[in-house]
Amino acid sequence: MIKNLLLLIATAVLLSACGESDPVMKDIRKQGKLIVLTRNAPTTYYLDANDEPAGFEYDLSKALADSLNVEVEYKLYDNIEEIMAAINKGEGHIVAAGLTQTDSRALNQTFGPGYKTVQQQVVCHRKVNMPKEVSDLLGRSLLIIAESSYQESLLELKESYPELVWQVTSDLSTEQVLD
Known about the structure:
single chain, D-Maltodextrin-Binding Protein, domain 2
């Protein structure tokens, strides 16, 4: 059941992103492999207890490669900035890194259909009062991931709240920021 669902999602992603005559598809067929750009994270790609690749995005991209009867090669990157630079340079065929489709990303990239909905959250230490509205964030120390959908959201909010400030990191993942 899960394998069929993954295959269905993978096929939908491929068909929406490129058809058989698309140059990317031709390159995949010519090389006999699908090159997937990803990152090491619990929701995307990681090595399990047996040192075997695992993760939802791994399963999805593996199902896609299997449906195309090609091998799959994974290229791991440390952060979103590196992944976006790599796909823009043509270092891979697809990105499977749990990225949110944003307006600015959609200007430069083709996205497949959405298969997961996420809602951004503000996370605070349990001893700190949780902000109830955007104005409660003013004067607080905010740390976000560079080139993330969080950054785009804050940039939009800054138009209405010019005193809103935050720090950006490329060295940490969302999971590491939460630690």
